[in-house]
Write a structure and sequence with these properties.
mainly alpha; 22 helices; 0% strand; disordered N terminus; transmembrane; cell membrane
């Protein structure tokens, strides 16, 4: 049987949208994760050279947080444009802003050359990164999920979530390569190369993203003149409760990533004496576990119900937290890898379906603003503060792993409350999702 041209076009459009969202988001997360890795390994020395090592590390993590402070602003700004004018063009702009900011970080002189101007400009460029990624995530999720076949939104949105491990893999590999340099070369110019390489990746991402078509659900809403004048007003007036629990539901998805990639990198290499290259390899291995598991998790969630799958995953993460940190505290690289890989299964399973889960909680007319506000407010309140608070928990606990474990369990508990809250307010159920799939079959 010959497939007609329109039918073939309809089949390709969801795949093209998912692929464009995946590639662009991978590049943006590469840029964003670069800063987190550098904050743990090199920024205290380059931009806070006169400070006590502990104070310098805290200052570096505070600079890291600047990106998260700007993320809600980017989410609201681009959410407004995306709900008013469409998803596609906003994603082109966010990718360009992120690429320019990351490239300029690679060119920025250190405090020895520019004094206080250096860390101030670093904060400004980090804020620009946050502004860009604040608008990126929501638009990419909607381009993928709204272009998907009915009943496949969670699976399509999962490919946006795959951008996070791919970005982390690219950032970690980049620092592994420059880490082969001697310490003097690494601190003077080697660490800059991954940031400068962003220019090439962004150019590739723009070529792919420009070919993606607009979200059909947005086009349908626009054709019906169902476009709000000020989306944030409608969100706060009629959907503030969903926004509140949505912020909490994103907690582990954002905070957990930076807990591992930034705080754990610092903790294991400074407190436990694990070699820097060894720890980067361990983190790289766990991210490969995430990348492999997330598509499987999305399929399982489609079968058993998204909300039910998320709750079970989060409860499992709580159950293994204390034994995991006990093993990590030994400082044995193999034990650290096995434990972090085990923790990655429930946490990345939850993260795989978070995007589609959250997108379905808001109506189309304010969806970009809704999911961006929830995700990026969480980034500011929880994600950006996670390395800083985890370091403080470690200091308050006298260097004991117990304080870190308690902090991590609290983070998961907050997330669990949010997931249950979104489920109750939006009416998620396995039965409803099953009916939707049957109707589309």
């Amino acid at each position: 049987m010959t497939v007609s041209a329109p039918a073939l076009h309809d089949e390709r459009k969801p795949r093209r949208a998912a692929f464009g969202s995946f590639v662009g988001t991978s590049i943006e997360w590469y840029d964003f994760y670069l800063f987190g890795t550098a904050a743990a390994l090199v920024l205290p020395t380059v931009f806070f050279p006169g400070a006590d090592p502990t104070i310098g590390l805290l200052a570096s993590f505070a600079t890291f947080w600047a990106g998260f402070l700007a993320r809600p602003l980017g989410g609201l700004f681009f959410g407004h444009i995306g709900d008013r004018l469409g998803r596609k063009n906003t994603l082109v702009v966010t990718l360009m802003i992120m690429g320019v900011a990351t490239f300029l970080i690679g060119l920025l002189p250190g405090a020895d050359a520019w004094g206080m101007a250096a860390p101030i400009l670093l904060i400004v460029l980090r804020a620009a990164q946050g502004f860009a990624v604040g608008g990126e995530w929501g638009g990419a999720v909607l381009m993928a999920s709204e272009s998907a076949q009915k009943g496949r939104g969670v699976r399509s949105a999962m490919w946006v979530q795959q951008g996070s491990p791919v970005g982390s893999i690219l950032a970690t590999v980049a620092f592994l390569l420059v880490g082969l340099l001697d310490q003097e070369a690494f601190l003077s110019w080697g660490w800059r190369l991954p940031f400068l390489a962003s220019a090439v990746l962004v150019a590739v991402g723009l070529l792919i993203r420009l070919k993606v078509e607009e979200s059909p659900e947005f086009e349908a809403a626009a054709s019906d003149a169902d476009v709000p004048r000020i989306p944030i007003n409608e969100l706060l007036r009629h959907h503030w409760g969903t926004l509140l629990v949505g912020v909490l539901a994103c907690g582990l998805g954002i905070g957990g990533a930076y807990f591992t990639s930034t705080f754990m990198l610092s903790y294991t290499t400074t407190q436990l004496g694990v070699d820097r290259q060894t720890m980067l390899m361990i983190l790289l291995g766990t991210v490969f576990v995430q990348f492999a598991w997330q598509p499987i998790a999305a399929r399982i969630a489609e079968r058993v119900g998204t909300a039910r799958f998320m709750v079970v995953s989060l409860v499992a993460a709580i159950a293994i937290a204390f034994p995991a940190f006990l093993v990590i505290s030994s400082g044995e690289p193999l034990g650290i890898f096995l434990v972090l890989a085990a923790v990655m299964i429930p946490t990345s399973g939850y993260y795989a379906v978070l995007a589609g889960f959250l997108a379905q909680a808001f109506p189309v007319r304010i969806r970009y603003t809704g999911i961006s506000a929830a995700y990026q407010l969480c980034a500011t309140l929880i994600g950006g503060t996670t390395p800083l608070l985890a370091q403080l928990a470690l200091n308050i606990g006298g260097g004991s792993w117990v304080g870190i474990a308690v902090f991590y369990v609290i983070l998961i508990g907050i997330t669990l409350i949010g997931v249950v809250g979104v489920t109750v307010r939006s009416g998620f159920s396995a039965a409803a999702e099953k009916r939707e799939r049957e109707v589309s079959a």
